[in-house]
Write a structure and sequence with these properties.
elongated, 265 residues, 37% strand, eight-stranded mixed sheet, 6 helices
């Protein structure tokens, strides 16, 4: 157990920040917990921090202690609209690494304009939950290898990085795929969140891109959601991915907010 007693302002109780577990810190004043810090290890090996404290000074002291206890680099994710929280991490020396825009995506084909969209010649869309697992895992591995060979997995959101022991496709029923010549060449994953499912990943193999496959996959899943009575889905898009932003904005999606991934080296 590591304890750091930090000076408090005159008239206040001394603030003590204690590492109570390997991945948890508590800030105490007058024996009351006034703030908490936690660590999460993401599947790609990166360490993400979170701090829960109402008081700015408490936040700063927890951050100071955690940074002293942990090796860098360290990461955190914040809602960009939460200016107070963002400012707190910036005071601790964190800088913006990436921005993810959250989109609200209509499912009605009269709004998206996707009613007439079909897969290109020779390509068929296998509906959600009907993909053959061996072929699904093969295209997932191929997509990941292409990403690793180009921008690298550290440029991707944590949810799409390799899992322990090489497991990547956890829930095959959440995928629709594009099939061509006996193999899968693209995939889309939909998380079945109540009332507003989330489109978590759209990917097409490099040698099959720019043929309309991603658009056909999106048309399929949005049409399926609309048929199920769901009006809106959500998606997060890296602002550096101009093609994906154009794809979603071109079907009437609107930005609903943004998240920042911050890093401390």
């Amino acid at each position: 157990m590591n304890t750091h007693q930090l000076p408090a302002d005159a008239g206040e109780h001394p603030l003590v920040v204690t590492r109570v577990e390997e991945r948890a810190w508590h800030a105490l004043a007058d024996d009351q917990v006034v703030g908490r810090g936690d660590v999460a290890l993401r599947p790609d090996g990166r360490t993400f921090l979170s701090i829960d404290a109402w008081d700015e000074a408490v936040f700063d002291r927890i951050a100071h202690t955690m940074l002293a206890d942990l090796p860098t680099p360290l990461y955190t994710v914040v809602d960009e609209a939460d200016r107070g929280l963002t400012a707190g991490w910036e005071r601790a020396g964190f800088t913006v690494r990436r921005r993810e825009w959250e989109y609200l995506v209509p499912t009605d084909p009269r709004i998206t304009g996707l009613a007439a969209v079909r897969a290109p010649s020779g390509v068929s869309v296998v509906p959600l939950g009907e993909a053959a697992e061996d072929l699904l895992r093969a295209v997932d591995r191929a997509v990941r290898e292409e990403v690793e060979a180009t921008v690298g997995w550290r440029s991707m959101p944590a949810e799409v990085v390799p899992r322990p022991h090489g497991t990547t496709v956890l829930y095959p029923s959440r995928y629709a795929v594009a099939a061509e010549s006996g193999r899968y060449v693209g995939l889309v994953r939909v998380a079945p969140i109540t009332r507003q499912p989330r489109i978590g990943l759209i990917a097409v193999l490099a040698d099959r891109q720019r043929r309309g496959i991603a658009r056909a996959l999106l048309a399929h899943v949005l049409g399926s959601l609309h048929h199920a009575g769901i009006d809106t889905a959500s998606a997060e898009v890296n602002e550096a991915n101009r093609a994906a932003m154009a794809l979603f904005e071109g079907i009437g999606s609107r930005r609903a907010g943004s998240n920042l991934e911050l890093v401390h080296h």
